[in-house]
Amino acid sequence: MDSASPQPSELNVRPVKVVKPLVVSFDAYDTIYEPVAPVHQQYHAIVTRYKGNWPSEEEISTRYRQHYSQLCQEYPNYGKSAGWPIEIFWKTLLNRVFYDGEPTIMDAVVSEIASHFSSHAAYHVFEDVEPLLQALAKNGVIPAVASNADEQVTHLVLHTFGLIDYFGKENIFLSYHLELSKPDPAFFEKIGTKLLELKNGEHSLKGLSKAEIKDHWWHVGDDYKKDVLCSQRAGIRSVLLDRKGQYGFLKEGEDSVIVHDRFIVARSLLALIDLFGMNESGKGA
Q: Which residue, of 76, 97, 121, is where some domain finishes?
């Protein structure tokens, strides 16, 4: 459990009516999509084709975490602060992870890994994503992506797996372009301003105040600090997507819990269809 997480036993969990959304935003990585296998395992599968069992999966995992954190501090926002294309950021990271291998072999490894993770073969979209997006569309709710995730990978996934038509190009809000990132509440403040400027077809938010939008805006994500605390500090309602039950809010066999009127915990996105009052006819209950 995240150290910032409250203890469920300390919370007053009680029946509460859920406010129906006008906007639902989603984190991307580990909410909409995930790697088909852990990143370090995919790295290892590629590197061992070139040089036996060096390095081990555990060593790759340790090096990846260490160097990713360090590189993000040196070159924030995937290197954009230094004028890097995203590809340079990832190739720099890979070169650091595999820095002590034979240069000619490691060049090939880095090139293949970069190519692999630039293709849809490296990723998987969760099965509960599209049913919720379909329900939102039928009920006139505006979906958006609000994420710190890699811009190129996020767009690759949304286009390759047929999700971009639900969101539309204008409703993809990534830290790379906003130059603000979670857990800074200003990230959501900036998105709220942009939402007011968008037409969103027949579901325009024009005429509403930012406060009215926030009161009917739910953000969904898997990280308590970056998704829940951040969105709530920005005045937005939040859904913690806890697929593995790791935060301790959900009892065994429980799909969702309404912690309070601005905070829901759900094991699956499918639970939100009922919680948001969206029945099969496409009309809110």
A: 121
Q: What is the separation of C-alpha 97 from the centre of its chain, rounded to a whole number of angstroms? A: 24
Check if the beta carbon of residue 236 is closer than 8 Å to that of residue 19: no
Residues 6+ apart with CB under 8 A from 131: 269, 270, 273
Q: 216 lies in which domain range?
A: 8-32+126-275
Contacts of 264 (CB under 8 A, 6+ apart): 18, 218, 237, 238, 239, 240, 256, 257, 258, 272, 275
Model confidence at 106, pLDDT cuts 50, 70, 90, reads confident
> What pLDDT does residue 26 have?
98
- 217, 21 contact by CB (below 8 A): yes
Do 20 and 157 share a structural domain? yes
- 156 and 269 in a single domain? The answer is yes
Total structural domains within the chain: 2
Residues 141 and 90 in one domain: no
- Domain with residue 269: its CATH number is 3.40.50.1000
Buried b (16+ CB within 10 A) or exposed e, 5-23: bbebeeeeeeeeebeebbb
In a domain, 204, yes or no: yes
Distance (Å, rounded) from C-alpha 278 to C-alpha 282? 6
Choose the most confident range, by mean pLDDT, from 85-99, 139-153, 188-202.
139-153
In terms of DSSP H, where are the helices of the chain? 39-47, 57-74, 86-97, 103-116, 129-138, 151-160, 164-167, 175-178, 186-197, 210-215, 230-233, 270-275
> Within this chain, do residues 59 and 161 fall inside the same structural domain, yes or no?
no
